[in-house]
Design brief:
Blueprint: E1 3-11, H1 16-27, E2 38-48, H2 52-64, E3 69-78, E4 86-92, H3 94-104, E5 120-124, H4 132-138, E6 144-148, E7 150-157, E8 161-169, E9 174-176, E10 183-188, E11 225-231, E12 234-244, E13 247-255, H5 264-278, E14 283-289, H6 292-300, E15 304-311, E16 333-335, E17 347-355
Parallel strand pairs: 13-14, 13-16
Antiparallel strand pairs: 1-2, 1-7, 3-4, 3-6, 4-5, 7-8, 9-10, 10-11, 11-12, 12-13, 14-17, 15-17
Length: 366
C-alpha cells in the first residue's frame, strides 16, 4: 500500500521567516533549505495515499475552530544535554497552540511520540555541544512577537525536503447560501491535493500523494492565493491568482461540471479579488476565452475588457471528451457554465482588467 510521509506545522510567516533563516545560516543548521522555519505540531508520520484527503480534512476542521495565534518567539534555549538542538522558545498564546496541536493530532495524522510536546522553532539541529553556550549568548536578546493565521500540511519529498501541500486559514469557513445547497469558500496559499483533479489532465495527478504541478504554491510565490469552493466535502470549484507587486493576476478559475450555472464562479472570483486586494494589489488582470460565459462573469463583477488576443489553443482535455463542456486551459482559465468545446488551433481570448479600492491592510500612499 503506497504511503506518503506527512507532517503538520505552523510556518513562521514572512518577513520574520527570513530573519530566522539568517540565524539558522549563522549557526550552520543542516536543515536550512530543506524546511521553512516552523513550529512542529505533528512530527513525520506515514499515511496511506488514499487517506491524504482525510488528512486535509483534519487540517481544515482544526483550523476552523482556531483563532489567529499571537506568539512570542525567543529567546534561544536548548534541549542539550538530551539533544544538541538550539531553538527559539515559543510563548504567547501557547494554550491556543496546544489546542490546535490536539485538534490535528488524530487519525490519519496521529502517531506514537517519544517526547512531550514542547512548542519551539529550531535554529540549529545537531549543533556541536561546545558551540551551544556561545549560540545562546549571541541570541539572548532575540525576542519577537508574531501573529500566525494558518496551519500547514507538509510532505517529505526527495532529499528530505519538506514541501507544504495544503494550508488552512484559522477561523470559521465562509458559507454562502445557507439553504439546500450551501457552498463553503476556503482561501489559502496553495491548492489542496484533491483540487488538482479539476486542473490536471486525466491520469497526471501523482499516485504517490503529490499535490500537482505547483506543490510549492500557485506560481511558486509567497503572495499566491488559492480559493476552493465546496459543498460539504465535494469540490465545487477552484480559483488561483498571483500578486505581482501592485497587480494581481487571475491564473485559473474552474467550476466542477455539476456545480455550474449556480453562481459558484462568481463567489470564487469575489473571494480571489478580496484576497489579492488584501495583499496590496491595486489592479487585477486576467485572460479568458472570448465567450458569453466569462464575459458575463467578469462584466458582472466590475471588470472591463481590455482587448482581444489571437492565441494558440491552450485548452487540453482534462478528462475524456464530454460534448458541451469547455475544458479548462492551463493559463487564464475561466469555466463557469457549459460552453461549446473549441477546435484545436488559434483561439480568441479576451483580456480583462479591474482597478481596486485600497485595502485596510494596504491603504496605499497617503
Amino acid at each position: 500500500m503506497p504511503r506518503v510521509r506527512l507532517g503538520v506545522a505552523v510556518l513562521v510567516p514572512s518577513p520574520l521567516a527570513t530573519e530566522v533563516d539568517a540565524l539558522r545560516r549563522a549557526l550552520g543548521d543542516p536543515a536550512l533549505g530543506r524546511i521553512a522555519p516552523h513550529v512542529t505540531l505533528v512530527p513525520p508520520v506515514n499515511v496511506p495515499v488514499e487517506r491524504l484527503d482525510d488528512a486535509v480534512s483534519v487540517l481544515r476542521a482544526a483550523a476552523a475552530a482556531t483563532a489567529p495565534l499571537r506568539l512570542r518567539l525567543g529567546p534561544a534555549t536548548t534541549f542539550h544535554p538530551v539533544n544538541p538542538v538550539v531553538y527559539l522558545a515559543v510563548g504567547g498564546d501557547v494554550a491556543g497552540l496546544r489546542a490546535l496541536r490536539d485538534a490535528v493530532f488524530r487519525p490519519p495524522l496521529e502517531r506514537p511520540l517519544t517526547h512531550d510536546f514542547v512548542p519551539h522553532v529550531t535554529v540549529a539541529d545537531d549543533l556541536a555541544p561546545e558551540r551551544i553556550p556561545a549560540a545562546l549568548a549571541a541570541l539572548a536578546d532575540f525576542v519577537v512577537d508574531v501573529t500566525v493565521d494558518r496551519v500547514h500540511l507538509l510532505r517529505e519529498d526527495g532529499g528530505r525536503v519538506w514541501q507544504p501541500i495544503a494550508d488552512a486559514r484559522f477561523g470559521p469557513v465562509r458559507v454562502i447560501g445557507r439553504g439546500g445547497l450551501p457552498v463553503s469558500i476556503e482561501v489559502g496559499e496553495r491548492l489542496p491535493p484533491d483540487a488538482w483533479a479539476l486542473l490536471a489532465p486525466a491520469g497526471s495527478v501523482p499516485a504517490d500523494g503529490g499535490a500537482g504541478p505547483a506543490d510549492a504554491g500557485v506560481g511558486g510565490g509567497a503572495a499566491d492565493v488559492a480559493v476552493v469552493a465546496r459543498r460539504g466535502e465535494e469540490l465545487a470549484g477552484v480559483a488561483t491568482g498571483t500578486a505581482l507587486g501592485p497587480v494581481g493576476r487571475l491564473a485559473v478559475l474552474v467550476v466542477a461540471p455539476g456545480a455550474r450555472r449556480q453562481g459558484v464562479g462568481r463567489h470564487l472570483l469575489t473571494a480571489l479579488t478580496a484576497a489579492l486586494r488584501d495583499r496590496g494589489c491595486a489592479a487585477l488582470d486576467a485572460v479568458a476565452p472570448a465567450h458569453p460565459a466569462p464575459d458575463g462573469l467578469f462584466g458582472g463583477a466590475g471588470w472591463r475588457p481590455a482587448g482581444d488576443l489571437a492565441l494558440p489553443d491552450l485548452t487540453p482535455d482534462l478528462d475524456p471528451p464530454d460534448p458541451g463542456v469547455d475544458r479548462a486551459p492551463e493559463v487564464g482559465s475561466v469555466t463557469d457554465r457549459d460552453v461549446a468545446v473549441r477546435p484545436a488551433g488559434p483561439a480568441r481570448w479576451r483580456r480583462w482588467e479591474r482597478l481596486l479600492p485600497a485595502s485596510p491592510q494596504h491603504p496605499g500612499p497617503g
